[in-house]
Design goal:
The complex is a heterodimer of chains A (114) and B (113).
Chain A: E1 4-7, E2 10-14, E3 19-25, E4 31-37, E5 44-49, E6 55-58, E7 61-65, E8 71-76, E9 85-92, E10 102-104, E11 108-113
Chain B: E1 5-7, E2 10-13, E3 19-24, E4 31-38, E5 42-50, E6 53-57, E7 64-68, E8 74-78, E9 87-94, E10 103-104, E11 108-112
Parallel strand pairs in B: 2-11
Antiparallel strand pairs in B: 1-3, 3-8, 4-5, 4-9, 5-6, 7-8, 9-10, 9-11
Classes of the chains: A mainly beta (114), B mainly beta (113).
Protein backbone atom coordinates (compact mmCIF):
# COMPACT_ATOMS: atom_id res chain seq x y z
CA UNK A 1 0.00 0.00 0.00
CA UNK A 2 0.95 3.64 -0.20
CA UNK A 3 3.26 4.93 2.51
CA UNK A 4 4.77 8.28 3.30
CA UNK A 5 8.24 8.52 4.82
CA UNK A 6 8.52 11.69 6.85
CA UNK A 7 11.81 12.93 8.24
CA UNK A 8 13.20 13.79 10.61
CA UNK A 9 11.12 12.12 13.31
CA UNK A 10 12.03 14.86 15.77
CA UNK A 11 14.05 18.06 15.82
CA UNK A 12 15.58 20.12 18.60
CA UNK A 13 16.41 23.65 17.52
CA UNK A 14 17.16 27.06 18.99
CA UNK A 15 14.58 29.80 18.76
CA UNK A 16 15.21 31.86 15.64
CA UNK A 17 16.62 29.00 13.60
CA UNK A 18 15.15 27.85 10.31
CA UNK A 19 13.57 24.39 10.08
CA UNK A 20 13.26 21.99 7.19
CA UNK A 21 11.36 18.71 7.02
CA UNK A 22 10.29 16.50 4.14
CA UNK A 23 8.13 13.64 2.99
CA UNK A 24 8.85 11.08 0.32
CA UNK A 25 6.81 8.29 -1.18
CA UNK A 26 7.14 5.52 -3.71
CA UNK A 27 3.69 6.53 -4.99
CA UNK A 28 2.71 9.56 -7.03
CA UNK A 29 0.33 11.96 -5.31
CA UNK A 30 -1.72 14.71 -6.88
CA UNK A 31 -2.16 16.69 -3.66
CA UNK A 32 0.24 17.30 -0.79
CA UNK A 33 -0.94 18.72 2.51
CA UNK A 34 0.94 19.89 5.58
CA UNK A 35 -0.69 19.92 9.01
CA UNK A 36 0.40 20.99 12.48
CA UNK A 37 -0.89 19.45 15.68
CA UNK A 38 -0.66 21.21 19.03
CA UNK A 39 -0.78 19.13 22.22
CA UNK A 40 -4.29 17.94 23.01
CA UNK A 41 -5.74 19.18 19.72
CA UNK A 42 -6.44 17.84 16.26
CA UNK A 43 -4.16 18.64 13.31
CA UNK A 44 -4.73 21.96 11.57
CA UNK A 45 -4.11 22.45 7.86
CA UNK A 46 -1.15 24.77 7.17
CA UNK A 47 -0.56 24.53 3.45
CA UNK A 48 -2.14 22.64 0.53
CA UNK A 49 -0.26 21.98 -2.72
CA UNK A 50 -2.02 20.89 -5.90
CA UNK A 51 0.54 21.10 -8.75
CA UNK A 52 3.95 19.55 -9.27
CA UNK A 53 6.65 22.17 -8.71
CA UNK A 54 4.27 24.46 -6.82
CA UNK A 55 5.88 26.57 -4.10
CA UNK A 56 3.47 28.08 -1.59
CA UNK A 57 4.03 30.28 1.44
CA UNK A 58 1.92 30.95 4.50
CA UNK A 59 3.69 33.55 6.62
CA UNK A 60 6.98 32.05 7.80
CA UNK A 61 6.06 28.67 6.31
CA UNK A 62 6.99 27.61 2.79
CA UNK A 63 6.14 24.27 1.21
CA UNK A 64 6.91 22.77 -2.18
CA UNK A 65 5.34 20.01 -4.23
CA UNK A 66 8.18 17.99 -5.74
CA UNK A 67 8.57 17.77 -9.50
CA UNK A 68 8.38 13.98 -9.42
CA UNK A 69 5.12 14.24 -7.40
CA UNK A 70 6.63 11.77 -4.94
CA UNK A 71 7.91 14.24 -2.39
CA UNK A 72 7.26 17.52 -0.61
CA UNK A 73 9.10 19.67 1.89
CA UNK A 74 8.13 22.23 4.51
CA UNK A 75 10.38 25.04 5.71
CA UNK A 76 9.80 27.25 8.72
CA UNK A 77 11.88 30.40 8.94
CA UNK A 78 12.93 32.18 12.14
CA UNK A 79 11.25 29.70 14.48
CA UNK A 80 9.35 30.95 17.53
CA UNK A 81 8.11 29.10 20.64
CA UNK A 82 4.57 28.63 19.29
CA UNK A 83 5.98 26.58 16.39
CA UNK A 84 6.40 23.68 18.81
CA UNK A 85 4.21 20.73 17.88
CA UNK A 86 3.94 17.82 15.51
CA UNK A 87 3.99 18.48 11.77
CA UNK A 88 2.35 15.96 9.46
CA UNK A 89 2.59 15.65 5.74
CA UNK A 90 -0.28 14.02 3.87
CA UNK A 91 -0.76 12.95 0.29
CA UNK A 92 -3.86 12.24 -1.67
CA UNK A 93 -4.40 10.54 -4.98
CA UNK A 94 -7.04 12.22 -7.07
CA UNK A 95 -7.63 10.39 -10.27
CA UNK A 96 -11.00 9.50 -11.65
CA UNK A 97 -11.78 7.86 -8.32
CA UNK A 98 -12.95 10.68 -6.05
CA UNK A 99 -12.95 8.56 -2.93
CA UNK A 100 -9.17 8.22 -2.56
CA UNK A 101 -8.30 8.60 1.06
CA UNK A 102 -5.57 10.83 2.44
CA UNK A 103 -2.36 9.11 3.59
CA UNK A 104 -0.45 10.66 6.50
CA UNK A 105 3.22 10.57 7.39
CA UNK A 106 4.17 9.68 10.98
CA UNK A 107 4.99 13.26 11.83
CA UNK A 108 7.97 15.42 12.75
CA UNK A 109 7.99 16.54 16.37
CA UNK A 110 9.52 20.01 16.68
CA UNK A 111 11.10 21.10 19.97
CA UNK A 112 12.47 24.61 20.52
CA UNK A 113 15.18 25.10 23.09
CA UNK A 114 15.09 28.30 25.13
CA UNK B 1 -18.82 28.74 11.28
CA UNK B 2 -18.60 25.98 13.89
CA UNK B 3 -15.72 23.54 13.54
CA UNK B 4 -15.75 19.77 13.83
CA UNK B 5 -17.09 18.73 17.22
CA UNK B 6 -16.13 15.48 18.87
CA UNK B 7 -17.65 14.14 22.05
CA UNK B 8 -16.68 13.16 24.60
CA UNK B 9 -13.17 14.66 24.89
CA UNK B 10 -11.97 12.06 27.36
CA UNK B 11 -13.12 8.55 28.13
CA UNK B 12 -11.90 5.78 30.41
CA UNK B 13 -13.17 2.27 29.81
CA UNK B 14 -12.24 -1.19 31.02
CA UNK B 15 -11.18 -4.09 28.86
CA UNK B 16 -14.07 -5.94 27.27
CA UNK B 17 -16.42 -2.98 27.31
CA UNK B 18 -17.64 -1.19 24.22
CA UNK B 19 -17.53 2.51 23.43
CA UNK B 20 -19.26 4.92 21.05
CA UNK B 21 -17.65 8.17 19.94
CA UNK B 22 -19.49 10.98 18.20
CA UNK B 23 -18.48 13.48 15.55
CA UNK B 24 -20.43 16.45 14.18
CA UNK B 25 -18.86 17.77 10.96
CA UNK B 26 -18.71 21.31 9.71
CA UNK B 27 -22.05 22.37 8.29
CA UNK B 28 -22.18 21.42 4.62
CA UNK B 29 -19.44 18.82 4.81
CA UNK B 30 -20.72 15.41 3.79
CA UNK B 31 -17.52 13.40 4.17
CA UNK B 32 -16.43 12.24 7.62
CA UNK B 33 -13.25 10.27 8.23
CA UNK B 34 -11.96 8.67 11.40
CA UNK B 35 -8.34 8.19 12.44
CA UNK B 36 -6.63 6.51 15.36
CA UNK B 37 -3.54 8.29 16.63
CA UNK B 38 -0.97 6.59 18.82
CA UNK B 39 2.60 7.70 19.59
CA UNK B 40 4.16 4.77 17.78
CA UNK B 41 1.95 4.52 14.70
CA UNK B 42 0.99 8.09 13.96
CA UNK B 43 -2.37 8.67 12.23
CA UNK B 44 -3.96 5.44 11.13
CA UNK B 45 -7.01 5.63 8.86
CA UNK B 46 -10.07 3.82 10.18
CA UNK B 47 -12.85 4.59 7.72
CA UNK B 48 -14.60 7.28 5.74
CA UNK B 49 -18.31 7.90 5.37
CA UNK B 50 -19.95 9.93 2.66
CA UNK B 51 -23.70 10.44 2.41
CA UNK B 52 -24.37 7.70 4.98
CA UNK B 53 -22.26 5.13 3.09
CA UNK B 54 -18.87 3.77 4.05
CA UNK B 55 -16.64 4.74 1.17
CA UNK B 56 -13.23 3.63 2.42
CA UNK B 57 -11.95 1.39 5.15
CA UNK B 58 -8.55 0.99 6.76
CA UNK B 59 -6.91 -2.15 8.11
CA UNK B 60 -8.60 -2.45 11.47
CA UNK B 61 -10.42 -5.46 12.92
CA UNK B 62 -14.17 -5.78 12.74
CA UNK B 63 -14.45 -4.59 16.35
CA UNK B 64 -14.17 -1.09 14.90
CA UNK B 65 -17.29 0.08 13.14
CA UNK B 66 -18.98 3.29 12.25
CA UNK B 67 -22.01 4.89 10.74
CA UNK B 68 -23.18 8.21 9.40
CA UNK B 69 -26.59 9.76 9.80
CA UNK B 70 -28.62 11.78 7.32
CA UNK B 71 -27.42 15.02 8.93
CA UNK B 72 -23.80 13.90 8.27
CA UNK B 73 -23.08 13.34 11.97
CA UNK B 74 -21.03 10.21 12.47
CA UNK B 75 -20.40 7.74 15.24
CA UNK B 76 -17.73 5.12 15.63
CA UNK B 77 -18.03 2.12 17.87
CA UNK B 78 -15.37 -0.14 19.30
CA UNK B 79 -16.54 -3.38 20.85
CA UNK B 80 -14.68 -5.69 23.22
CA UNK B 81 -12.08 -3.07 24.07
CA UNK B 82 -8.43 -4.05 24.37
CA UNK B 83 -5.61 -2.20 26.13
CA UNK B 84 -4.08 -1.46 22.73
CA UNK B 85 -7.16 0.52 21.72
CA UNK B 86 -6.02 3.35 24.00
CA UNK B 87 -5.45 6.25 21.64
CA UNK B 88 -6.60 9.64 20.45
CA UNK B 89 -9.46 9.15 17.99
CA UNK B 90 -9.74 11.96 15.50
CA UNK B 91 -12.60 12.79 13.22
CA UNK B 92 -12.19 14.94 10.14
CA UNK B 93 -14.74 16.37 7.78
CA UNK B 94 -14.35 17.63 4.26
CA UNK B 95 -16.26 18.79 1.25
CA UNK B 96 -17.20 16.24 -1.37
CA UNK B 97 -14.14 14.64 -2.94
CA UNK B 98 -11.75 15.76 -0.18
CA UNK B 99 -10.19 18.21 -2.62
CA UNK B 100 -9.65 20.78 0.10
CA UNK B 101 -8.19 18.45 2.68
CA UNK B 102 -9.62 17.80 6.04
CA UNK B 103 -10.72 19.85 9.00
CA UNK B 104 -10.06 17.88 12.16
CA UNK B 105 -11.86 17.89 15.47
CA UNK B 106 -9.95 18.02 18.76
CA UNK B 107 -10.33 14.28 19.21
CA UNK B 108 -11.53 11.88 21.88
CA UNK B 109 -8.82 10.54 24.18
CA UNK B 110 -9.77 6.93 24.99
CA UNK B 111 -7.97 5.12 27.78
CA UNK B 112 -8.62 1.41 28.26
CA UNK B 113 -7.65 0.02 31.66
Amino acid sequence: GQQLNQSPQSMFIQEGEDVSMNCTSSSIFNTWLWYKQDPGEGPVLLIALYKAGELTSNGRLTAQFGITRKDSFLNISASIPSDVGIYFCAGQLQGTNRDDKIIFGKGTRLHILP
Amino acid sequence: KAGVTQTPRYLIKTRGQQVTLSCSPISGHRSVSWYQQTPGQGLQFLFEYFSETQRNKGNFPGRFSGRQFSNSRSEMNVSTLELGDSALYLCASSLEGQTYGYTFGSGTRLTVV
